[in-house]
Every structure is written in C-alpha cells, then in structure tokens.
Design brief:
single chain; alpha/beta; Rossmann fold; eight-stranded mixed sheet; 10 helices; globular
Length: 246
C-alpha cells in the first residue's frame, strides 16, 4: 500500500493493521517483515520501538523506505530472515504468508529470530471470504482458512490470540436507513474517512497509525482490527493473530 496512490479499501485495510500493531512496539526491538513502502515500519519506530529493522525482498521498496522515512530497511527473504537468533522482541508481518511457497519455513524463521518473551503480529486473508471478491489472485500461493492459520501458529507458539478484520456489518444496518447511519457513524468517529485516500499524505498516514481509537471508533470502522473467535472469526475477510510463548 502506497499512501496517496492506493484505493480506499486497500488503504484502510492496511492502515488499520499497523494502527493495531503500534500498540506492541514501545521499548521493543522490532522487525517488520515485508515492509513494502515503509510507512508501517516508520509508524512502529515512531511508536517508541527501541530499534526497528524493516525487511523486504524488493530493492525498490527497500530504497524507498530508507530514503523516505530514514529507517533501517534491508533486502531480505521472509523464508530466510536476515537476522540473528533471538534478536528481536516483536515481529510484524502483514499479508505476507499467503505469498510464500513455504509458509511453515517462514513461521520457523519467525520463531528462530524472536526472543522467548517475544510476539509475532501477523495477518493473512481468510480464503473462504477473500475469494468471494478476489477469486483468482496469482500472487497468493498459500491461502488459509481460519482454523488452519490458527493451527499452524499453535504448532510453534504456546499462546495465540485471534483477531478479525473486515467482518460483516452489524445486523441493524440491514434495516431501512441503517447503512446510511453506519456510514455517518464511521465519518463521525474517523474524520479522515471524509478525505479521498489519494489526498491523504504519508505524514497523515503515520499520525493515523499512531493514534489510539475509542470503542465507538472501532465499532464504526469496518476495517478495525477486533478480538473475535469461532464462527465470527470465520466470517472476517482478514485473520490477524498475536502469537507468543508466554
């Protein structure tokens, strides 16, 4: 996602994930795997990370992130993370694992590079929901259902907390005028939604990722990352997990 160039759906989905992740960064040695343009890694650094390294397999992305945000961005492969064993407290990796031929190798690498007290914050599309709107994404070679994603993480981490993103709208929105009221609430509790995403700057994106939201703000923001389980999780378009050994 590139601020100023992304469509609205892509922008808000990505920005909300990093907004969620910044709460874990303070005082931690952080790695952002598949950092892309770099705004998310920069937000993690601004959130008070003790150190931050951003890794991507595209030269252009690494150069852009380094030059635009002044962060430590490095070329690397998610299946062979260029970091020492037990060297970071937090790994953030959004929309990465589904692109990998060897997803288990990536998770093994995350486990290797995390300290014992560390956390992995990770996301992936829920294949059952995602394919309803994107039936043939040639870049996704390892899409998963919610139960498979959870199982893979539990095979390596003792504790896995599940979150969902882009879940179905509340039932009351199906009533007459409900959708209009929901959109009004969304704009009220997230004024940036009134701005065309092409006009939202990199600075505003960083500020948004660092801002804390209220309970009404989460409720009226469809892309907000929220704690969900079971059947409700299976209905979310994106699966987010926080995995740890403690």
């Amino acid at each position: 996602m590139v601020p100023g160039a992304a469509d609205a759906a892509t922008y808000w989905e990505h920005a909300e994930r990093y907004r969620f992740a910044t709460r874990f960064a303070f005082g931690k040695d952080v790695a952002d795997i598949a950092c892309g343009e770099g705004y998310g890694a920069a937000a993690l650094a601004e959130a008070g990370a003790a150190s931050l390294v951003a890794i991507d397999n595209a030269d252009a992305a690494v150069s852009h992130a380094r030059e635009t945000y002044g962060i430590d961005a490095r070329l690397g492969n998610a299946e062979a993370i260029p970091l020492k064993d037990a060297s970071v407290d937090l790994i953030v990796s959004f929309e990465t694992i589904e692109h990998l031929v060897h997803p288990d190798q990536f998770l093994d690498e995350c486990q290797r590079t995390l300290r014992h007290s560390g956390r992995l914050v990770i996301s992936t599309p829920n294949v059952d929901i995602y394919r309803q709107t994107s039936p043939d994404n040639p870049y996704h070679v390892s899409e998963m259902r919610s139960d498979e994603f959870h199982r893979r993480l539990l095979s390596r981490f003792r504790k896995v907390q599940s979150f969902g993103q882009c879940r179905p709208s509340p039932r009351w929105t199906r009533l007459r005028g409900g959708t209009r009221l929901f959109h009004l609430g969304t704009r009220l509790f997230n004024p940036l939604r009134t701005v065309q995403t092409q006009a939202i700057s990199q600075k505003s994106t960083l500020e948004y990722c660092l801002a804390r939201t209220t309970a009404p703000g989460r409720y009226f923001t469809p892309e907000s990352v929220q704690r969900v389980t079971g059947a409700e999780l299976a209905r979310c378009k994106y699966l987010i997990a926080v995995a740890s050994q403690h």
